[in-house]
Amino acid sequence: GGSSSGGIKGSSGGAIGNMAGASILGGGGGSAVEKQFLGGSEAKLGSLSDKLGALDVMGASLTSDQLDKNQSSSGNIPSSQKTAIPSHLYKLVRDLIDTEKRDFSLLELSKKREDFPDLAPILWHSFGTIAALLQEIVSIYPLLSPPRLTTELSNRCCNALALLQCVASHPETRSAFLSAHIPLYLYPFLNTVCEYKQYEYLRLTSLGVIGALVKMDDSDVIKFLLQTQIIPLCLRIMDNGSGLSKTVATFIIQKILLDDQGLDYICLTFERFSTVSDVLRKMVLGLKKQPSVRLLKHICRCYLRLSENKHAREALQTCIPNELRDHTFAEFLKDDSERLTRKWLQQLRRNIGDIQDNNNMLK
Fold this sequence. Notes:
- By secondary structure, the chain is mainly α.
- 62% of the residues lie in helices and 0% in strands.
- The longest helix has 19 residues, at 151-169.
- The termini are far apart.
């Protein structure tokens, strides 16, 4: 039959929530969800062998003298940044292209990245550096399935990802970071389902890179991400991931929804909306057993934003979990620090025409 979602397009007339989130988002790769969200517009990573060949050439053919000359003559790095960053950091950046020194440089630079915000342009404009970081990432791919990744290799890759995160969040390098489609190199890590801690570290650090991108409230970032697999990947982590990974993945979906492009995209079809709604509902139910105020906050913001779409608002009237309509989470939200979350819940109920127990909830 036709859609009964009150205006959200779709070929299915079933009630919202009937889509089996576990089977769609489970270990099989989420192909059904990917088709709903991608619609043939998925950005492609390209031939892995070609990429690796290019990285080998860029990373191995550069001498230290050439890098010194490149860094000293580069017009892309403002002189103010050169004076602000200690000379030993430049040496650590140079050492990234030396495979024998790279492990130590990755560790030291990842520790210092927050102390030197302008490290990002140095990393981006230093010849061969980004290629070296990508080499660290793609070298892990063969170890993902079957699971053969060691904690040591996972930590090393996470250090490389941490450096990419500072590049992703810097205003001078973010646009180029997107233009190079570097976030796509992280998706194989987000696609893993192995529960070993070394794989969880990779997932969480990769989510951190995407989270740094969406935190900037840049519409170009959202536009790019909507052409990739990020929504189904995040939904699967929200459905099956660990506590912290769930929180970061939900934050990413929240930031996508807060952009008008993202809200329109998710509410375009019944299938997309119902898939997101179903995952959110399951997370709310899970919070009864394992409470998390931070996660609840992001879930409430997602629901509130969905309710700002006319057709989604009509559908939400029948699929909002009862736990968000009664006193289930009142105890967790009683502190003054959670005033904003309580306000969001109240506004959500107003939007969907449900004002029951609002006053009691806000006390």
